[in-house]
């Protein structure tokens, strides 16, 4: 399969963030076309394209728009989720920093499709300071040209976008956590239902979409649903950005039709693992996704195939681990992340993630007990499905999969009080550790 | 930055000093007014107002917590709840250069901990602490979303990608 340049068509052009370059490449044609259509036609077109959300859950985008009640008493909100913080994921940052107008155009079309005059925010993670300045500049350019503001393209549609910066909390990438954060609160996810499409930000109907999902929308309007479906396989359609990182020769963002296999992507396009080493494990969809072993990687990178294999496409952050990596140490690092990022609302997640971290750390330090491997599974069982949002489920993904698939390595830690001889630890155990 | 939290949240210095008056300078006041126009409620302006306050004063002191609360009709407890939830609001002063090393998995397997340990040793500073001259703060952070160019070190607002110890050593003297 050859790489494609559709979502990334503009990013290598000089001065790619400017509105002139974007318009020269056919930009804002889709918005002009869409604003002459009926909102329901746009939603139907997106439904027909089988576009699924690119943020992690893979929910059908058109269906989500369809849930928004018409003539709700409160204003409708469109929130762009640019809080990209899933370890291993860095695709949205490319779109934000290199081609901001694509997602802005996607937001104009989406806003028009879901409500008469919605309010719109781009919630960008606080660390992406540069990305926020690029977006602010792009929004100012779009306002100047009349693509944002009152009566866009003479359609009577009023629309503007505000950039809202996060402040360093992974959980604000969860859609109700994001809504809480936009409202000025601690980013603690809400009980669902009611779903945000009915009652979301400030009590109004709210659609939350990932950056890449919104970037797909102008492409669908320009080229049609059938064209979009020509990429990938049924229910898993469209061009897709894949982020490859870890111990791999050529890490980076790659664009392919949805469904390239992990094997082809890692070995043919990313150069495989460093010379003299062997592949040990692949995490296919960001830190939350259960890991796969080398004999499981001949699998298409799409939502359904990975779900069938017991993992998930998630945010398509593919982390490659070679045989120098100690699996227990790698899983410890991910558990440390989830323990740090748990919002503290639900007891199983708040307490459980810290226990997972400390048991894994104990194993690394040679203090493992014979029951620890099963204890990790037992604890995971008490976290999964027992919290309001998916963070608890995310935290146990790497733990369960690694204990099941690399049990002998866990047992080696317990019995020999050390890592496997061929692995190296990438941290110093004697280094001082900062408190959480 | 959890490690930038005060040791005891109930310590006497968490309460505002009545002799210290904080007030936004004129340009920040204008920015604050324009922030208010972008949100349907005053409370929603809290995060951007805290960002603005941190730009002005460098950290969110107890006085700033009370001041921001008074601007937005929020109790200091509500403001402090938000400040303590988000990593990027500093509850202690930080150095002029805040060196934040991402050590999450993709950075870790590309030797991020080597950089982190090196910085702590070379600058003789405990993780999460500031050098006595107030120049550098070193801390470990979670994924910065730049895994393809790991390891990455964020220094104030800028990302420094594909880092290693040599590049770090070359960079440090330029951070005056």
List strands and helices in order, with pairings:
The complex is a heterodimer of chains A (436) and B (176).
Chain A: H1 19-24, H2 29-34, H3 39-49, H4 61-66, E1 77-82, H5 91-98, H6 100-114, E2 119-124, H7 129-144, E3 149-152, E4 157-159, E5 161-165, H8 175-182, E6 206-210, H9 211-223, H10 225-229, E7 232-233, E8 236-237, E9 239-246, E10 252-257, H11 262-269, E11 279-283, H12 303-308, E12 317-322, H13 327-341, H14 347-364, H15 372-383, H16 391-405, H17 407-416
Parallel strand pairs in A: 1-2, 1-6, 2-5, 9-12
Antiparallel strand pairs in A: 3-4, 7-8, 9-10, 11-12
Chain B: H1 26-36, H2 46-57, H3 62-72, H4 76-85, E1 97-102, H5 105-108, H6 112-122, E2 136-141, E3 153-155, E4 158-160, H7 165-171
Parallel strand pairs in B: 1-2
Antiparallel strand pairs in B: 1-3, 3-4
Helix pairs in contact in B: 1-2, 3-4
Task: Summarize model confidence as the mean pLDDT of chain A.
Answer: 95
Strand order of the largest sheet of chain A: 5-2-1-6
Q: So, the CATH homologous superfamily of the largest domain in chain B? A: NADH-quinone oxidoreductase subunit E
Count of DSSP strands of chain A: 12
Secondary structure class of chain B reads alpha+beta
User: How far apart, in Å, are the first and last alpha carbons of chain A?
Assistant: 44 Å
Mean pLDDT across all amino acids of chain B: 92
CATH superfamily of the largest domain in chain A: NADH-ubiquinone oxidoreductase 51kDa subunit
N to C succession of SSEs of chain B:
HHHHEHHEEEH
Gross morphology of chain A: globular
Care to describe what's here?
The complex is a heterodimer of chains A (436) and B (176). Chain A has 436 residues and is α/β, with parallel strands linked by helices. Chain A contains 17 helices and 12 strands. In chain A, the strands form 4 sheets. In chain A, strands 5-2-1-6 form a 4-stranded parallel β-sheet, sandwiched between helices. A 4-stranded mixed β-sheet of chain A has the order 10-9-12-11, with no helix packed on it. In chain A, strands 3-4 form a two-stranded antiparallel ribbon. The N and C termini of chain A lie far apart (44 Å). The model of chain A has no long low-confidence stretch (mean pLDDT 95). By secondary structure, chain B is α+β, with helices and mostly antiparallel strands. Chain B folds into 2 domains: 2-85, Arc Repressor Mutant, subunit A (Orthogonal Bundle), CATH 1.10.10.1590; 97-174, Glutaredoxin (3-Layer(aba) Sandwich), CATH 3.40.30. Chain B contains 7 helices and 4 strands; from the N terminus they run H-H-H-H-E-H-H-E-E-E-H. In chain B, helix 1 (26-36) runs antiparallel to helix 2 and helix 3 crosses helix 4. The longest helix of chain B is centred in the N-terminal third of the chain and has 12 residues, at 46-57. Chains A and B meet through strand 5, strand 9, strand 12 and helix 13 of A and helix 2, helix 4, helix 5 and helix 6 of B.
């Amino acid at each position: 399969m050859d790489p494609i340049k559709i979502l990334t068509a503009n990013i290598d052009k000089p001065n790619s963030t400017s509105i002139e370059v974007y318009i020269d490449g056919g930009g804002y044609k889709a918005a002009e076309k869409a604003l002459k259509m009926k909102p329901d036609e746009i939603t139907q077109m997106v439904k027909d394209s089988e576009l699924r959300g690119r943020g992690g859950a893979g929910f059908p985008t058109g269906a989500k728009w369809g849930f928004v009640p018409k003539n709700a008493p409160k204003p409708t909100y469109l929130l762009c989720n640019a809080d990209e913080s899933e370890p291993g994921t860095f695709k949205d940052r490319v779109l934000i920093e290199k081609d901001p107008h694509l997602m802005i155009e996607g937001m104009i079309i989406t806003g028009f499709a879901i409500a008469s005059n919605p309010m719109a925010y781009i919630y960008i993670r606080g660390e992406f300071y540069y990305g926020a300045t690029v977006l602010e500049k792009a929004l100012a350019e779009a306002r100047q040209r009349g693509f944002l503001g009152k009566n866009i393209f003479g359609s009577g549609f009023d629309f503007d976008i505000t950039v809202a910066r996060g402040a360093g909390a992974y959980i604000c990438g969860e859609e109700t956590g994001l809504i809480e954060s936009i409202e000025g609160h601690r980013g603690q996810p809400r009980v669902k239902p009611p779903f945000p499409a009915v009652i979301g930000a400030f009590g109004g109907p709210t659609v939350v979409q990932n950056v890449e999902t919104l970037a797909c929308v102008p492409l669908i309007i320009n080229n049609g649903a059938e064209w979009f479906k020509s990429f990938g396989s049924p229910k898993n359609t469209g061009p897709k950005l894949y982020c490859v990182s870890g111990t791999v020769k050529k890490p980076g963002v790659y664009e392919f039709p949805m469904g390239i296999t992990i094997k082809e992507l890692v070995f043919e396009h990313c150069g495989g693992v460093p010379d003299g080493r062997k592949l040990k494990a692949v995490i296919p969809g960001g830190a939350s996704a259960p890991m796969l072993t080398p004999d499981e990687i001949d699998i298409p990178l799409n939502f359904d195939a990975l779900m069938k294999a017991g993992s998930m496409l998630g945010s398509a952050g593919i982390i490659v681990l070679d045989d120098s990596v100690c699996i227990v140490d790698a899983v410890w690092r991910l558990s440390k992340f989830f323990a740090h990022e748990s919002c503290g609302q639900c007891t199983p997640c708040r307490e459980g993630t810290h226990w997972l971290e400390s048991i894994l750390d104990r194993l690394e330090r040679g203090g493992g007990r014979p029951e620890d491997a099963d204890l990790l599974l037992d604890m995971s069982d008490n976290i999964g499905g027992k919290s309001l949002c998916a963070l608890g489920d995310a935290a146990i993904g790497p733990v369960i999969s690694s204990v099941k698939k690399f049990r002998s390595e866990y047992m080696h830690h317990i019995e020999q009080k050390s890592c496997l001889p061929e692995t190296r630890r990438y941290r110093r155990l004697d280094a001082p550790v900062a408190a959480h | 930055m959890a490690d930038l939290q005060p040791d005891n949240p109930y310590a006497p210095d968490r309460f505002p000093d009545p002799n210290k008056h904080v007030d936004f300078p004129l340009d920040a006041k204008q920015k604050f007014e324009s922030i208010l126009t972008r949100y349907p409620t005053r409370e929603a302006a809290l995060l951007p107002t805290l960002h603005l306050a941190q730009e002005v004063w460098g950290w969110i002191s107890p006085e700033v917590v009370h001041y921001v609360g008074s601007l937005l009709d929020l109790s200091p407890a509500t403001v402090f709840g938000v400040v303590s939830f988000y990593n990027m609001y500093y509850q202690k002063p930080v150095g002029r250069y805040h060196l934040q090393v991402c050590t999450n998995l993709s950075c870790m397997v590309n030797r991020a901990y080597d950089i982190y340990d090196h910085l702590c040793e070379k600058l003789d500073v405990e993780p999460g602490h500031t050098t006595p001259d107030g120049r550098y703060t070193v801390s470990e952070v979670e994924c910065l979303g730049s895994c393809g160019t790991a390891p990455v070190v964020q220094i104030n607002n800028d990302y420094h990608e594909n880092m290693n110890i040599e590049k770090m050593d070359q960079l440090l003297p330029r951070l005056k």
